[in-house]
Amino acid sequence: FLLIAVVLAIGIVLVGTAVGLIHAHPPIRILAVASLLLFVVLVIRASRRFRRMAVNVGDLVDAAGRIEAGDYGAQVAEHGPSEVRTLARAFNAMSARLATTDRNRRAFVADLTHEFRTPLAIIRGQAEGIGDGVYPGDPPHVAPILDATASLETLVEALGTMTLADVGSLRLHREPVEVGVLVNSSLAAFQSLADGGGVRLTAEIAADTTAIDADPVRIRSVLANLLSNAIRHTPSGGSVTVSTSRSGEAVSIAVRDTGEGIPEEVRSQVFERFVKGPGSPGAGLGLAIA
User: Fold this and answer.
1) Residue pLDDT, tens place only, 191-223
2) Does 233 lie in the same domain as 197?
3) DSSP helix, strand, coil percent of the chain (3-state; round to 5)
């Protein structure tokens, strides 16, 4: 209101001087006429700019209301004054991120529902069969229930780990870890599984490999997931090799197998949640956690 009052006062003074209502010498009157013309031009340009800005801000308000209602794909036109264009670009980037997050959330819930449905169906079917007397309550018919329960337990634990990682609350208990001991002990843990599938396990530990600063539980879990996948997808007579190398202060651990490899269609997505190859019995969370 103060700005409007000042503009009106200036306009009245200029008009009064220009038309002779306010006494002034001729040179001053000429200057007043010129100033009045310039003042009118500036007011017209400012009003047009204000109208454009008001329209753009109105679009932003409408789009914000659509986002509030759940339409996360709402976008606004990026035109008008530079300040409004900057605001519109920031708004569009925000709405795009919201839309992506919403799509990921919906996909996550759908995948999670699917992963829970299968073991729960097994537990219910076996339990109802035993309860109705269709199956005897012997170990062969109880085993599927225990296996499905173990799958659910693994899934819940994996989801808990991912949730902690997402919010930055996953605590790592770092300590010096001997890489050679880590690799050999991990291979020993999977030796029986490899023997059952006719797969040979081999370790190639570089002589200059030093201890690393890591959480032994977490790094062992990562290596176990890679070994499990490698053994599962390697045919009988094949091999799985775990090798280490050093580059400066960094130590690399590689797991190679002679299996069919990761299918081309999922290769770029293997570290995303619930992504798994055909025939994989897991939930598709292991590599995402790794």
Assistant:
1) 988 998 999 999 999 888 888 998 888 888 888
2) yes
3) 65, 10, 25
**Cα–Cα distance measured from residue 109 to residue 135, given in angstroms and rounded to the nearest whole number:** 34
Domain identity same for 12 and 56: yes
Domain CATH number, residue 225 = 3.30.565.10
Examine residue 233 and state whether it is found in any structural domain, yes or no. Answer: yes
Strand partners for 203: 242
- Host domain of residue 51: 2-71
> How far, in Å, CA of 162 to CA of 290, rounded?
10
Hey, is 281 helix, strand or coil? coil
Return the half-sphere exposure (C-beta side, CA atoms, 13 A cut-off) of residue 69.
8
Domain count, the chain: 3
Closest by CA position to 200, among listed 231, 239, 233, 255: 239
How far apart, in Å, are the Cα atoms of 55 and each of 43, 58, 59, 90, 150?
Answer: 18, 5, 6, 17, 59
SS3 at position 79: coil
Q: How many whole angstroms separate alpha carbon 46 and alpha carbon 53?
A: 10
- Confirm whether 40 is domain-assigned: yes
The token pair that represents 269 in the structure block: 């997505």
Cα–Cα separations (whole angstroms), residue 185 to 7, 189, 198, 231: 83, 6, 19, 16
Rounded distance between C-alpha atoms, residue 138 and residue 142, angstroms: 6
Within 10 angstroms of residue 231's Cβ, the number of other Cβ atoms is 21
What span, in angstroms and rounded, lies between the C-alpha atoms of 33 and 39? 10
Please tell me the pTM assigned to this model.
0.54
Tens of pLDDT along 84-108?
Answer: 778 888 888 888 888 887 887 787 7
3-class DSSP assignment, residue 282? coil
- Identify whether the C-beta of residue 266 lies closer than 8 Å to the C-beta of residue 283: no
Q: Is 138 in the same domain as 198? A: no
